[in-house]
Amino acid sequence: MRILRAIFGHTSGRIGGAIVLLYLVIALLGVMGFTPHDPLMQNRLDRLHSPTITYWMGTDLFGRDVASRLMRGVGQSFTVAFLSVAFASLAGTVLGLAAAWFGHRLDGIIMRLMDVLLAFPAILLALLVVAIVGPGTWTSVVAIGIVYTPIFTRVVRGPALSLKARDFVDAARTFGSSRTYILTRHLLLNLVAPLTVQITLALAWALLTEAGLSFLGLGTQPPASSLGLMLSDSRNLMETAPWLLVFPGLAIMVSILGFNLLGDALRDILDPRMRRSNP
Amino acid sequence: MGYVTRRLVTFPLVLIGVSILVFVAIRLVPGDSITAMLGTEAGLLTPQQRVALTAYFGLDQNWLVQYWHWLLGLFRGDLGISVAYGKPVLDVIFDRFPLTLELAFLSMIIALAIGLPAGVFAATHNGRPSDLMVRIFAMVGQSTPSFVVGLLIIYMLSVGFGALPTMGEFSPFWKDPLRNLSQLIFPAITLGLAFAASVTRISRSAMLDVLSDDYVRTARSKGASARSVIWRHALPNALIPVVTLSGMEFGYLLGGAVLVEKIYALPGLGRVVLDAILQRDYALLQGSVLFIAFNFMVVNLLVDLAYSALDPRIRLGER
Q1: Chain B neighbors of A212, CB-CB under 8 A
Q2: Which domains occur in chain B, in start order?
Q3: Which of A116, A235, A254 is opposite residue B21, by nearest beta carbon?
């Protein structure tokens, strides 16, 4: 509640939160199929129709309603982004905690493995995973998840190491608290703040990467809709039907903006050191 | 162990890890290696030819031996033959690398030329409407994917000027500088704009930090002019995070900007990787991915070393 109030009191937080909330509603409606038209239904008489009352955002080359496809696309992009960030944050937290807690050899092995993954530019690593598994929605989830796991591992390991050396952890050990209890109650709970910030910012990157993979034809496969795919389809038609470029482009941009604003606000609120130089 | 020594010691270890990962990843591709290597042409092979090829490439040996031979090949500069291009993988990579390098340089120049002054301006006008404007532009810029910017630029060019960015066969700078620049300027602007937003944010934030430091206050109280305080005293220290960010971004760009290269039909390194995936040219994929990761690691190492040289606290192992 306190955090929600703080977000509401922060300008970026308010704007970012409102955008994210709006997108969540759109995504949910899109996933559940509550769209103005059937996103897959082709209407050859209404091909490349400019925006009207019936078709708010116009129609595409096959006469499909762009607004409905966009809603479904937002749903698809958000599903991939949330699943992949859930994957990365879970894997990263487990690995980071294990590295910090057990230290020594395990720490060395885990962190060098993460260094290896970080040695690849993000999109390249994602492409490598796609090359192995083949394109598709689940591939995108795994690919983006793997790409961002090392970042979460690093975010967790650093603070976990310093928390481990704190007196209250020693005290808990002395009182005979179990390892699981200390790891979850004392370490994990204290890591909620940096993790929340990282998850919010990672969602923005995940949306960006998902859109990029789909744009390249290696993410969501047609006829399913995704924002990246819609943009890719717009390339040869942008002169005659600019709405095919403008709406999905804006949709991607504003969604990423929302998560970036919210992430910045959360960082300001949860990490007081950042307040002075809020970029 | 000091930071620099630790970084230098772990570098070869991580490099070996990267080579193992790339080697194993390619072998995890479904189907047998001959099919992976020859793509669709493998279907034309007789069983005898397939056995002969398997023996020829040493694929009948275990992975450890195969990896060792591959590693030895790497040291000789032999990354295998690209089936799609019909020539050594290293030749394909070196054909494409100049474009990627030039594009990375141009984008960096554009990003720094816009981002650095904008960041300094915003920091020195902290809290004023002009600062807010810069921050909004930077935030929006950072949230706009490069391929959206690229498509918008192409749209504006075609609708506003009835022209398209120069595409077609790529001319190297030394052959036809004008045509070369006309081919690369819009992709460079596309990549540079997105990166300029990050530079603006980080340089503004770093400048704000530095401007409130004691030594800057001292310089001010000694009567140094505002210009001298900003450019001589504050900026050099504020540049440290900008150098790091720029170096990392340069490392990314050396990996080829897959999306922007696709939009502008540029034959850079990113396209090589994409083509290798789409055409199932695994020798090329293996080689190009390794080459890009190697570049990325070297640039990151140099950035870290530069960072520690600029900031003595890191050199002394405080982090």
Answers
A1: 145, 147, 258-259
A2: 89-315 (1.10.3720.10)
A3: A116
